[in-house]
TrEMBL record:
One GO BP: regulation of cell shape
Coiled coil: 72-99
Protein known as: Cell shape-determining protein MreC
Record-annotated Rod shape-determining protein MreC beta-barrel core domain positions: 125-269
Organism annotation: Thiovibrio frasassiensis
Annotated Gene Ontology cellular component terms: plasma membrane
Family: Belongs to the MreC family.
Function: Involved in formation and maintenance of cell shape.
First and last residue of the signal peptide: none
Amino acid sequence: MRKKNKRARQIRLFLFFGLLLALFIILIVSTVGRQEFNAPHKLALEVIGTAQYAMTRMTGSFKNGWQNYTALINVREENARLREELQKHKAVNNEYREAVATNVRLAKLLEMKETLPAPTLTAEIIGVDPSQWFKTIIIDRGSSDGVQAGMPAVTVEGVVGQVTNTSPHFAKILLATDPNSALDGLVQETRVQGIVKGGGAGFHMEYVLKNAEVSKGDRIVTSGIGGVFPKGVPIGTVAKAEKAGRGMFQEIEIEPAADFSQLEYLIIVMKKDPLAK
C-alpha cells in the first residue's frame, strides 16, 4: 500500500511538472509568430508568471536576508572597533588627567619648598610598612641622596613625620600620628605651647595648663623648638579642648592638617645636624 501511494504521488508530480513545461513551450512558440494570446496562451502565461513571481520573491528574500546578515557582521565589527578606540581614548584621557593632577601637586610642593629652609628634597611615597606596631611609610630616597635619620618630612598641608631608617636608595618615615611620635607645637592664635603626640588617627596636645587660652578651631603649628621641624609648619586644628577633670592640664585633641590616607609626595628638610642614630 505504501509503495502504491508513493508511486501515485510521483506520477502526480510528473504530470504537474509536465504540464508546466508544456505551458512554457506553448508560451514561447506563441510569442514567436503571434502578437495576441488565446485562452490557452493566457492560461500558460498566468501559471508561468505566478511561478516566476514566487521564485523572484523567494530569491529577493534570500538576497535581502544575506545582505542584512553581512551588514550585521559589518556593524558588529565596527562596534568592536569603536569600543576598542573608545577604551584607548579613555586610557589616554585618564593618563592626561593624572599628569595634570601630578603637576598641580608638584607645583604646590615647589611653592612649599620655597618657604622651608634649604636644602630640601622631594620624595615619592612608594609603600607602607606592613608592621602593625608602627605607622611608617617608605620613600624612594635614601642615604645616597643625603637623607639621614632624624630629618623631618612635610607636605603641602603640613607635618608628615620624621626619618627613622635609611638604605642607599630608600628611607622609612615614622608618621607624626604614631603614638611613639612627639613634636613641639604651639597655638597659632595665642602662642600657647605644648607637646603634640600621635594618637593613631590624630594628635593629642599635652602639658597645656588649664588657664591657657585654647579653643576649638584654633590652628596648631610647629614651634621650632628642639630644632627638628622648621617653625610654623601646620600640624592641625583643635577638635576638642576640655578643662574639666583632675590635674593641671587641659585635654586637647587635634585633627591633622595633612590627610595621611592620601599621601603621595612629600618634602624632606635636609637639616645639617639631624638627630642621627
